[in-house]
Amino acid sequence: MAAATAGYAAVHGHPLEHPGPEAPTGPARWVLSLRLAVVAGIALVVLGAGIAVRSLLGSPGAPVAVPDRPVETLAVTGRDAPPGAVGDASSGAPSAGAAGAAGAADGVGARAGADAVGVVVVHVVGEVVVPGVVRLPTGSRVADALTAAGGTTGGADLTAVNLARVLVDGEQVVVPAPGQAAEAGAGPAGPAGPAGPAGNGDAGRGGSPALVDLNTADLAQLDALPGIGPVLAQRVLDWRDAHGRFTDVAELGEVSGIGPTLLGRLRPLVRV
Predict the structure, then answer these.
(1) What are the chain's domains?
(2) DSSP readout, 62-93?
(3) Could you tell me if 142 and 125 are in contact, meaning their C-beta atoms sit under 8 angstroms apart?
(4) pLDDT tier at 203 (50, 70, 90 boundaries)?
(5) pTM exceeds 0.90
(6) What is the residue range of the signal peptide feature (predicted)?
């Protein structure tokens, strides 16, 4: 029996002795430890970054109350408002300067306002399709005013109108019919003879109206002349003040806005 057991053990090994599991080798353990270390390191970096960001941002502060302040609005009318034209913004009431400026508009002020914005305002009458007041850019000519008035009618006498003349703010452009121009300015007139005081309303001989004396007439008398508005009348007075007096009716042509056609219509109506 002992011999058989010894022979079996020699061939198959001892039945009670079995080799245990092989111990893991060194490199595999180090690889596993390195992976764990890398994962742990990444987790620490992410955690640290999150803490740093939270520290930088911090908690939102409490809202700060901003006191309400009334909004001041300054309303300016026109391109260049004069001093005092702006009202009191807190009360909404216009200042005294604004009220004064609103009530002080006259012919000269209207012309200055038109020049400031580059516009001339003229009155077109006579043989045009749509007579009336037209607004045109500064530098426009009589032809532009007639176009703005719808053009001329078939009965217009354009030979009596200087279509190339530059318009003056506040003037009146008259387009006559044939025959009307001859009546208004019938040829050149020589120096007029003595007449009664200008503007007294008395009729001269033959029922003709009294001539207007250019050296004594006031603004209203000059404004009443055909083709002369308040602006041109003021320019006549300004020319007279600058030169002392008129020595000839022809000197009216030196006043800005009075061309040859208008001068021809005025000759029979004025004197010096």
Answers:
(1) 108-176 (3.10.20), 185-272 (1.10.150.320)
(2) PPPPPPP-PPP-----SSSPPTT-S--TTT-P
(3) no
(4) very low
(5) no
(6) none
